[in-house]
Structures are given as C-alpha cells and as structure tokens.
Specification:
The chain is α/β, with parallel strands linked by helices and 401 residues long. 32% of the residues lie in helices and 26% in strands.
Length: 401
C-alpha cells in the first residue's frame, strides 16, 4: 500500500522569503521540504511586484532584525546572483535633502548607515549631487555605493529551481485552508489536497496573520495592505535619471517616499506612494473586499493608526487619484520633470503589520509556537535580505525540530 509522504518541513508561501527558507533548510541537512503556494507560480504578489532594489542597510535601526539581515543578506544576494548568472548591477544610489528641515534626518541616515557597516557612504553638497545625477536638485545628499538593482522574480525562480533539484517539492495552486494535528504530525488541508509535515513555517505575506490564526496561534498584529502605485518615465525622458534617486524619508513611517529607480531590464520607475488598499490583493482602485475592509475597521489598532496619521492618509489618497500631485512629488527631486513625461505603470501591495496600539511594525516580526514558526512582518528589505532571513528561519526551525 502506498504510504503518504510526511515532510520534515512545509513552508506556506512561495515568495522570496518562503523559498529562501526552504533553500536554507536544504542546505542545513537532508531534510524533506515542500513549499505550498496559493497561486500558479512562485513570487506572485509582494516579490513579483517589487521594484528590484538591492538595499544597502542605510535606513534601519542598528541592532534591529532589518539592519542585521539586510546588511548580511545584501552581500549574500550579490554572491548568489553572481554564482547563478542572474543579471544584477551594483550601481549605488543618492538620497537627497531638499530643505533644511530634512537635514537632521539625513544626518541620522548617515549615522545609521555607518553603524550598520556601510563603507560606501559619501556626504554630498548641492554641487556634488549633480555629479551623480545631473538633473536632480537638493541642498545636501548621501551617495551609497552598496545599493544595487536586480529582478527578484528571477531570483525566486532560481531559488525554486535549486529546491526542486535538491529533491524538494513546490506545490502550486495549494492555498492553505486549515490545519489539524495527526498524532505527532500536522495535517494541512489545501486547495490541492492534504499535506502532512512534522514542522510548519508560515511565510504567507499578505495572509500571514490569518494563517497563524487558522493554526491556533494569536499573531498579536493584523496585516493592513498598503498599495504602492508607480509611474514610469517615457523613453525619451529616461536620460533624466542615471541610477536611483531617493528623498529623505519621514521617520514616522516605514515607507521610503516617492523615488526614482532604474530597472535592471531597462526603464525608469517613479514611485511608489503608500495608500491604504481595500483588499489584500488590491492592485487597483477598483479592488474591494468586504471581508478585508471589515476586518480592518473592526480592529482597534486601525482606528488608533488612523487618528494619528489621518493627514498623511488623506495626502496619499489625493496623490493616488491625482497625477498632478504625484508629479509635484517627483519634481521635488527633479524639477524639470513635467506632467507629460510620465505615465501610470503597475502597483504592488505591501503586507504591513499593525500593532493593537496603532503602531506600524517597523521591524521583521517572527513568532514561534509548537512545531511552527510564523513570519508575520517581512516587508522591504525582505527581498534583499531573503537569504539571511531564510537562514535565520532555518536556524530557528532546526533548533525546534
């Protein structure tokens, strides 16, 4: 009689973090590993809608999980791409202060970057800014040489190929539905059938909190989706941007602000904003989910966040519906950009964890339970840091296995 396979580890989520965790587990020993992905391909959501920046580690509080994993993961990413013939470029970026009010925050970025081990930071005067970006303007800036660009879908596909070559499984179309215990094992009910495992790792991204609850674990946060909308420069205007140009971010929010990104396959993206989405997969204004919205409005943390940051929220909504306002944001960095120089491109949705006190979680959030690990907050720079995060997850999982 055919005996059903019991996997040592099952990972829910076929994005870049889930596949990196699976890859790291395989490297730690002869473990049987399966990845369950709800969609019909890997990297379908946050990973596949990523702008493709290999972050340096400039922004993150020294000692935080983001800082440690971004710094280590950045170099691991460069090595992985080099060893697996994935196109990438270590092009550097500049961060520009456009007013005196932004100078203290720029100073703090410089301090954090150096504390996080960046050696390629250079302070720029207004005259030096144009040596790197001739059409950009500001009163001061930072050049960060460690930043790069890549296609994270290609990276995830490479992870998946190695997982399969190492004997692992990737089950597509396998949306997680429920879990029950089967003796010492866990039995997962999915859209493609049942999968049995000794240990579960939740890398469910936009649904990580719901998956945790279905597994009997209280996540103590709720995922709130924020849509990031992009414009793209017309081909004849791409000369205005050489590499990557960022503003000084608002330290109150875990978003980097509207910026310019040269893409690895060509073209210049401009954006994103950060507007509340009304569906966890809300890639357009028309997307709406009664379940998702209801869950948000009945969560106390949502109203606490709204009461603190409603002015920012209103400004983001206005910019979302007004190309004119979006272009005005772009003109702060490159004044010569005009209304007709850009056109709407795609969008992505960020799975942002929100605490009950209304605070947007600013660091990676990982919780452990019996025979389980749940990754509850892994936004940017998770793609950059994926190999490092994957190793961290694998270390925790093997220790608890």
């Amino acid at each position: 009689m055919f005996k059903k396979q019991v996997f040592d580890f099952v990972i829910i989520g076929g994005g870049i973090v889930g596949t990196a965790a699976a890859l790291s587990l395989q490297m730690k020993g002869k473990y049987s590993v399966a990845v369950l992905e709800a969609e019909e391909k890997v990297a379908p959501h946050q990973t596949g809608h990523n702008s493709g920046v290999i972050h340096s580690g400039l922004y993150y509080k020294p000692g935080s999980l983001k800082a440690a994993n971004c710094t280590a993961g950045r170099e691991m990413m460069y090595r992985f791409c080099d060893e697996n013939n994935i196109q990438f470029e270590k092009c550097g970026k500049i961060v520009i202060a456009t007013s005196k009010e932004e100078l203290p925050a720029l100073d703090e970025l410089e301090r954090r970057g150096k504390a996080n081990g960046l050696t390629g930071i250079k302070r720029l005067t207004s005259e030096e800014i144009i040596e790197y970006e001739p059409y950009a303007e500001g009163i001061a800036g930072l050049f960060v040489s460690e930043t790069g660009i890549v296609d994270y879908t290609k990276v995830t596909e490479a992870y998946a190929k190695i997982i399969l070559n190492n004997g692992g499984e990737i089950k597509l179309g396998s949306r997680f539905i429920s879990l029950r215990k089967n003796g010492k094992h866990l039995l997962l009910n999915t859209a493609s059938g049942e999968t049995e495992t000794k240990f579960l790792i939740n890398c469910g991204g936009l649904y990580a909190d719901r998956i945790a609850k279905l597994c009997g674990v209280e996540p103590k946060i709720q995922i709130v989706p924020f849509r990031g909308e992009y414009y793209k420069l017309k081909k004849e205007k791409e000369y205005l941007v050489k590499n990557l140009i960022y503003p000084v971010p608002d330290p109150k929010f875990p978003f980097l602000g509207v910026h310019y990104t040269r893409m690895i396959h060509g073209g210049i993206e401009a954006g994103p904003n950060a507007v509340l989405a009304f569906k966890r997969e809300g890639y357009s204004h028309k997307d709406f989910s009664f379940k998702d919205v209801s869950q948000m409005i009945f969560y106390s943390g949502f109203w606490k966040m709204a009461s603190k940051h409603y002015k920012m929220g209103i400004a983001e909504f206005r910019r979302s519906f007004s190309k004119k306002l979006f272009v005005e944001s772009l003109q702060k960095l490159i004044p010569s950009i005009e209304y007709d120089d850009v056109f709407r491109e795609g969008s992505g949705v960020r799975a942002q964890a929100l605490d009950p006190d209304g605070k947007l979680a600013d660091d990676f959030r990982i919780i452990e339970a019996e025979k389980m690990i749940h990754i509850l907050n892994a936004p940017s720079p998770a793609a950059t840091a994926s190999l490092s995060i994957g190793k961290t997850i694998a270390d925790l999982a093997v220790k608890k296995f």
